[in-house]
Write a structure and sequence with these properties.
It contains no helices and eleven strands. With about 120 residues, it is mostly beta strands. Strands 2, 4, 5, 6, 9, 10 and 11 form a seven-stranded mixed β-sheet that branches. It has a four-stranded antiparallel β-sheet with strand order 1-3-8-7, with no helix packed on it. Strand 7 and strand 8 form a beta hairpin.
Amino acid sequence: QVQLVESGGGLVQAGGSLRLSCAASGDTICISAMGWYRQAPGKERELVAAITSGGNTNYADSVKGRFTISRDNAKNTLYLQMNSLKPEDTAVYYCNAHTLGPCGVVAREEALDAWGQGTLVTVSS
């Protein structure tokens, strides 16, 4: 199993920057991809950015050019650098890890997702 712990959320003014961190533990060798999702009040959870084990990245159109996803494999940590923040970016941000079996506690070929507890990002106008 994989456990995820997020940190770095907080209050920031529009135009400011913030960096989120996600520390992974457990069966980290089973992780094939990781990503950041966010959910604003009254809205559905959406994908913000993702990165595969091979280093390929994908971003939501709303954050392209402003956010950067990266990882440090040696530290088993995922990052999201957020620049030029807007009030629309206000949301709870969740770290996600996609795993493939058989690996760790998964005995069969199966895809599972691990989630962090979420960290709140508030951007004031």
